[in-house]
Amino acid sequence: MSRLIRNPRARALQGHRAGIASRALAFAADLGIAFVLSTLLFAGASLLWDLFFSDDLAVPRPASGVSAGTIFVILVLTLGLGWGSTGRSIGNQIVGLRVVRADAAPLQPGQAYLRAFLSALLPVGLLLALVDRRNRSVQDVWCKTVVVYDWVPEVVHAAVPGPTPSVSSAPPAAPDSGQSGA
Predict the structure, then answer these.
(1) Contacts of 57 (CB under 8 A, 6+ apart)
(2) Does 166 score more than 90 pLDDT?
(3) Residue 28 CB: number of other CB atoms within 10 A?
(4) Which of 6, 18, 96, 130 is 20 to 30 Å from 151 by CA-CA measure?
(5) Pseudo-torsion of CA 97, 98, 102, 106, nearest 10°?
(6) Rounded distance, CA 124 to CA 116, Å?
(7) What pLDDT is recorded for position 115?
(8) What are the φ and ψ backbone dihedral angles of 135, each rounded to 5 degrees?
(9) Could you tell me the residue ranges of all domains in the chain?
(10) Percent of the chain clearing pLDDT 70 (strictly above)
(11) For the chain, where are the alpha helices, taking DSSP H only?
(12) For residue 113, is pLDDT > 70?
């Protein structure tokens, strides 16, 4: 089932390079999701520990370095997994973006995780998109990627013609000799 893009401006932007506002909003959503997952991880681990090894239930506050490191790792894992599989993180899905290679092919897993690591390590690298003519961030330049608007994935993929089936040039099979194996 194909969905239609009803908004004419959105239809015109489909497949074009995304701007900084959309990209920043998607990254903020991904960062918020990493924060929530980190909080749930710490709370769950603490409650399990208290359930089995303690007499009272308490959720201690982890050290800021541990908390920041955990959020960083979760952010890299979720971004890398999303970009390496579908080209979308959860934030990209919400905003309607997709990360592809410069030749419009899907990212390789290593390329996706390198981009995720750089995005989590240098989020200010997105500011390069303000002055770059092609809306590229530092991560895009280093990893040779592009972020495009992609609200309805099947529209983009339907526009790319697939390989045409070729007619087999193999000679026809030899006729059966009529002998049976009975």
Answers:
(1) 47, 50, 51
(2) no
(3) 13
(4) 130
(5) -170
(6) 13
(7) 96
(8) 55, 35
(9) 8-159
(10) 82
(11) 8-13, 20-53, 64-85, 90-95, 109-121, 138-143, 153-159
(12) yes
